[in-house]
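FORM 7B: Structural annotation worksheet

SECTION A. Query
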Amino acid sequence: MRLVDSHAHLDFPQFDADREVVIERAREAGLVAILNVGTDLASSRAAGALADRYDFIYAAVGVHPHDAKTVTPAVLEDLRELARHPKVVAIGEIGLDYYRDLSPRPVQRRVFAQQLALAAELGLPVVVHSREAHDDVLAALQDWQGGGGVLHSYSGGPERLEEVMALGFSIGLSGPVTFRKAHRLRAVAAAAPLDRLLVETDCPYLTPVPYRGRRNEPAYVRYVAEAVARARGVSVEDVARATTENARRLFDWMSNKP
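SECTION B. Predicted structure
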C-alpha cells in the first residue's frame, strides 16, 4: 500500500536520537513521499537539508503563526531563497493561531499575507495552519491569487467544508480522526470529496490510536488512512491510492525548478 505523509516535522529534536531509523520505518511501511514542513527559518533550512539526504522526502518552508513576530524583510528574503531549492514544493507552515496567540494577531495576519504573496510569486501551494481563526484564514485565502494548498490538520468542522472546497483547497486529516470522541472529524472525513483529502501525521505530535500518548512518526499515517476509510465505508487501499495521488498533484513532486 503506497502512502504519503503530507505533513511531518522530522527535523524536530524529538527525532535526534533515531531519525534515520524512523525514516527507514516509514519507507518499510510503504510511504512513497513525506512532506517535511518548516515552522521558522531554522527548521525550514533543516527541512531542505533533510530533503537533500532522502529521495522520498520533500520540504515546505515558512514561518508558523506562533513565530510571526520574528519575521522581518530579511527573513522573507531568506525564505524566498530557500524556496528555490528543487525539492521545496510548498510554502508552509503559515497561517493564523488564535488559540495560543504567541504572536499578536495583527502581526500574524500581516505575516500570513506576506507569505501568501511569496507563494503566489513563486507559483507554490501553501500549507496552512488554522486554529480558532477560521473566519480570518478563509477571508485571506478568498482574496489570494495563488495556486491552492491544504488546510493542515483540518479543524473547521463539516459546516466549513463547502467554503474550503469553493476556494479549491484540500484538507489534511491527522491523528485526531482516530480518537474515540472525534465524531465531527469523522463526519468531515466522510463528507469531503475524496480528491481533496490528504492524510498526515504532524509528527511528532497528534499521535493516532493505537499509539496515542507516544511520539508520532510518519509510519503511523496508515492509521489515519484506516480511520478515513472506515468513516467513508471504503477500503483503506482506495483511500491510500486517492490521497497519494492528491498529494502528488498538489505538490507536483516531479517538477524540476530552475
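SECTION C. Observations
The chain has a mean pLDDT of 96. Residues 3-210+242-251 form a domain with the TIM Barrel fold (CATH 3.20.20.140).

SECTION D. Sign-off
Analyst initials: ____
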